[in-house]
Design a protein that fits this description.
10 helices; 8-stranded mixed β-sheet; 4-stranded mixed β-sheet; Rossmann fold; alpha/beta; single chain
């Protein structure tokens, strides 16, 4: 199925369901990619700064614990974004004689950004981009090389706990004994720290969410009036779960030409666009309980806002 056909299918299913929902993966077209980079630079968005601090202060320790000196190794990043974190982490490995960096992403725009960044900042490291789904791309890689998988920036937070457990199980099954995973997670903390990260004062996160409607209008012939919708975030402290919604400001009907369908909205009706899990050790142990993964090390920033867990497959 082509990407546009999948988009049509998912929009149809999401807007026909109750409650309505659209997958957060559709945030990331060219406009969405640029908006997310802006989000990571906002004063309220602590996640990127916290993980950058971990890499600034602890990357030599992280790399040493990977135990990849002088062996053929593929360092694979899932959902690499603009490649900033990978460059920051891998800079000490630029003289490694047998290292290949493999960013995997469904967005060709994101992969182009990563390739350009490495060419400018770390030209010594070979980059082989893979466009497509994570697990199929990993299975196609060279089986004889050691693998280190990077899944950074709390991307796994976009899954429910059960989805995250399934994801880690499938990821573990693609790896060989001795392979490792470096997993970035946002840690549980108070609402006054977390909620502003999803509702910044400049409205960039609002634009990022509403870009979903812009994309439906552009690619599927929708007639969403953005003035009639607003971005609504919330945080459940007990569950450790942030959620983002697009809320209808009025009773209205929206037509999507590519689907030959119209969808009704009541005033106050929500479209869920994102879920962002916040983690602690209990949640981490839950998502790896059906795998052959063990925790080797945990690295945290000084405020204990963020953690990178290093796992090894037995």
């Amino acid at each position: 199925m082509s990407s546009i056909e999948q988009f049509k299918k998912d929009v149809f299913e999401g807007l026909s369901d109750f409650p309505k929902h659209i997958s957060s993966k559709y945030f990331y077209d060219a406009i969405g990619d640029d908006l997310f980079v802006k989000i990571t630079q906002l004063p309220e968005y602590y996640l990127t700064r916290a993980e950058n601090e971990i890499f600034d202060e602890l990357r030599d320790e992280i790399i040493a614990e990977m135990n990849i000196d002088d062996i053929p190794v593929e360092i694979i990043e899932l959902g690499a974004g603009d490649g900033h974190k990978a460059v920051q982490l891998l800079e000490p490995l630029k003289d490694h004689a047998h290292l290949t960096f493999i960013p995997i992403d469904i967005s060709t725009n994101a992969l182009s950004s990563v390739e350009e960044r490495f060419q400018l900042e770390l030209p010594e490291i070979e980059v082989k981009s893979e466009q497509g789904e994570y697990f199929s791309a990993i299975r196609d890689l060279n089986g004889y090389k050691r693998k280190v998988v990077l899944f950074l920036g709390s991307n796994i937070g976009n899954f429910t706990q059960d989805q995250a457990q399934k994801f880690m199980s499938e990821l573990s099954n693609t790896l060989d004994s001795g392979d490792k995973i470096l997993l970035g997670v946002d840690l549980k903390k108070s609402e006054d720290i977390i909620l502003p990260a999803y509702n910044d004062s400049q409205g960039v996160t609002r634009d990022f969410n509403l870009n979903l409607l812009v994309r439906i209008n552009r690619e599927l012939g929708g007639d969403f009036n953005l003035e009639q919708f607003e971005h609504i975030p919330e945080y459940d402290t007990e569950l450790g779960e942030a959620r983002s919604f697009i809320k209808s400001k009025s009773d209205q009907v929206v037509h999507v030409e590519a689907l030959k369908m119209s969808f009704g909205f009541k005033v106050g009706e929500l479209i869920q666009t994102e879920i962002s899990q916040k983690y602690d050790d209990k949640k981490i142990n839950y998502i790896i309980e059906n795998t052959d993964l063990t925790i080797k090390k945990v690295y945290k920033d000084k405020n204990q806002y963020f953690a990178d867990y290093l796992f090894e497959k037995s």
